[in-house]
Specification:
404 residues, alpha/beta, 11 helices, 21 strands
């Protein structure tokens, strides 16, 4: 075929549906699972949807993305929410991000945090460090680093935080010391809001319903239970675990590069660099008891708790109850009682290791010259939210159509 798409998650489904919209019918999607959606799939648990990949929501900020997705699930089938995310730190429950909401803490804690931020490296003229942990202390001060950022990131990503670079930290809200001080004096948040400040979530379904509808729109172009484990760049073919072989003029891969057990025609040094890419695995787990909070989700840096985040399903998923936790696979505690459902996502978060940008730059540029395109969270090994992934997929599809 002309276009072969590996993976029927948000990236692959967007490319396929955009190709169809543009009048291109010569494409095929191969999906490992028995249904579409990838990390954004939902299942019914305790009478309501449970998003097995954790907290996934549709950000409002990309109008072109929402316009495209509303073709499959119209806007009137979504609820619009003002984000209410919180942090439990030092027995304070405050809004996220921590820098903008220190004013919600006990007054004695506010003083300690402000003193710490005032002498943070970035505020006293010290040069920016290159290691992740050093950067956190430099940017936010020792108090926020020790109480929140270091333990939380160890729980979510990795115990070895110095394997991570600092190039990705522009995603963090940038709140200056002056804004933090003003927020404490005036008792209101200052600074830029984080992503998903407003978000959509389906009224009657889990987030996975959107992707099921997109799959249905191209139903005759998707083959399920096709586990791709070999790729040949010389012949532009892939082979699945059941021995089927597929060839295309262009291959768009949205699956983890580590899933290719055999790669042919790729330079040795590039192929070997793939093994240096790292990721974390996350278990989502459902509990049916209700929490007395109006938060949509809550962050927990406390190292004594295995999970790093709770999503309060009843506060964004209509007519539901209970909550679910997200826990790094290295921290799973099998002795926690009352869990009603759990799901382990092997590939949850790509880790932003120090050498990752150079590895991916060489890999993606080389592959592109062979008409193979890495796309999305796993094709590009980037911690993209679904709206960013869809935006990139729309751009790539336009580029491919214009090229061909």
């Amino acid at each position: 075929m002309k276009y072969l798409i590996l993976g029927a998650g948000p990236a692959g489904l967007t490319v396929a549906n955009k190709l169809k919209e543009l009048g291109e019918e010569d494409f095929l999607v191969l999906e490992k699972e028995n249904e579409a959606g990838g990390l954004c799939r939902s299942v019914m648990v305790d009478g309501s949807p449970f998003d097995i990949g954790g907290g996934h929501f549709l950000d409002v900020r990309r109008a072109n993305v929402n316009k495209f997705l509303f073709n499959f699930m119209p806007e009137n089938e979504w609820n619009l929410y003002e984000r209410n995310s919180q942090i439990k730190v030092n027995n304070n429950i405050i809004n996220h991000p921590i820098e903008a909401n220190i004013w919600q803490m006990k007054i004695e804690d506010q003083v300690e945090y402000l003193k710490s931020i005032a002498i943070a490296g970035c505020n006293v003229g010290q040069p920016m460090p290159t290691k992740f942990t050093d950067w956190i202390y430099w940017k936010l001060g020792a108090k926020i680093a020790d109480d929140y950022m270091i333990p939380y990131n160890q729980k979510m990503f990795s115990k070895e935080l110095d394997e991570l670079g600092t190039y990705w930290l522009e995603k963090l809200p940038n709140v200056s010391f002056e804004e933090t001080l003003l927020s404490c004096l005036e008792k209101k948040a200052y600074g830029k809001q984080p992503g998903h400040a407003q978000f959509y979530y389906p009224k009657k379904y889990g987030y996975g319903e959107l992707w099921l509808r997109m799959a249905k729109n191209i139903n005759n172009k998707i083959l399920y239970e096709k586990d791709v484990n070999e790729i040949n760049f010389d012949t532009l073919t892939v082979i699945t675990s059941d021995g089927e072989e597929y060839q295309a003029e262009n291959i768009i891969t949205t699956i983890p590069w580590m899933e290719f057990s055999k790669i042919y025609g790729m330079p040795k040094e590039i192929k070997e660099s793939i093994s240096k890419l790292k990721y974390s695995s996350i278990q989502t787990e459902y509990f049916n008891n209700s929490l007395d909070t109006d938060a949509h989700w809550i962050y927990y840096p406390d190292p004594q708790l295995p999970y790093h985040r709770i999503l309060v399903r009843s506060n964004f998923c209509t007519n539901s109850r209970g909550y679910w936790t997200e826990t790094n696979s290295e921290r799973i505690n099998t002795e926690i009682p009352n869990s009603n459902f759990k799901y382990l996502n092997k590939y949850a978060y790509p880790l932003n290791t120090i050498d990752k940008p150079e590895i991916m730059k060489r890999l993606l540029e080389w592959c592109k010259n062979k008409n193979v395109y890495g796309l999305g969270r796993w094709g590009e090994h980037q911690h993209y939210n679904s709206d960013v992934t869809v935006d990139l997929a729309l751009q790539l599809t336009d580029d491919l159509i214009n090229k061909n």
